[in-house]
Amino acid sequence: MIWLLDLGNTRAKAGSWHQGQLVRLQAGCWGPEGPAAVLDRLAPAERPTAIWVSSVAGSQVQAAVIDWARGRDWPSPHFARSTAEALGVRCAYADPSRLGVDRWMVVLAAAATGRDALIVDAGTACTVDAVTADGRHLGGLILPGVALARSALNQRTQFLAEDVVTTPLPVVGNDTNPAVTVGAVHALLGAIARVQAGLGQSSDWHDPLCVLTGGEARLLAPHLPGGWLERPHYVLEGLARLAVAADETGDIG
Ligand SMILES: Nc1ncnc2c1ncn2[C@@H]1O[C@H](COP(=O)(O)OP(=O)(O)O)[C@@H](O)[C@H]1O
Ligand SMILES: CC(C)(COP(=O)(O)O)[C@@H](O)C(=O)NCCC(=O)O
Ligand SMILES: [K+]
Fold first, then answer.
1. What is the pTM of this model?
2. Which residue ranges have their beta carbon within 6 Å of ligand 1?
3. Which residues does the annotation say bind substrate (predicted)?
């Protein structure tokens, strides 16, 4: 069993890769009690044969994960990295180390389908990435997620907007809260639509698979056109691909 961790800026997500399946999926928010307490809650009962981590949560969290595993006498965690090429996919960034590894993981997950694919990971930040059927990562966008956009506005204005998203999504808001929240949702939906339209102009972009993941996926899903696939654990799916491939080749870097 391989234990998989997706460490984002707001939450830790975990799952176990067991007999070709992602099982025991869990999530926990980072909080004042520190990363070790979150890992304690997410950890499987049995010792994994390997631990693979996709982390954008910073070096302190990374160090805490290493210490935590050592404290249990569990295998040292492998930290996945964004690279120029992996599993037949080439990274769009000239300096791949600058691409968030969570973005690279969803690109690798989508590339397994062999289709052109657009992936939206609606987390703390909302990222949009495109990868072609022949394994070219085209790049993406990084936008503030809905909660982050709201907190940024609250910090720099005199209002204190709270979360209100009504369905159906209004075209305009009739008070501060809906103006902020509906505005943030429109901003994301508008950006996604523009990327889809732009890629659609290209002759080598056909019938793309559109995947939605992340903690804010449920805010966006009802307002996206049909055909979007919701895959809540897409980062872990990509990480599992990488871990399994490394296990098969004996390359655990
Ligand atoms: N139980 C929850 N706790 C905190 N945030 C949540 C929760 N459920 C959904 N969210 C929303 O999801 C976002 C975090 O999504 P996630 O994909 O875990 O992000 P990240 O990978 O950046 O940690 C938050 O900004 C919040 O808006
Ligand atoms: C954009 C991100 C902050 C998203 O992180 P998340 O919202 O999932 O916590 C992360 O992918 C990141 O730190 N990226 C590095 C910059 C880049 O991808 O260009
Ligand atoms: K994200």
1. 0.97
2. 8-11, 29, 123-124, 145, 147, 214-216
3. 93, 100-103, 176
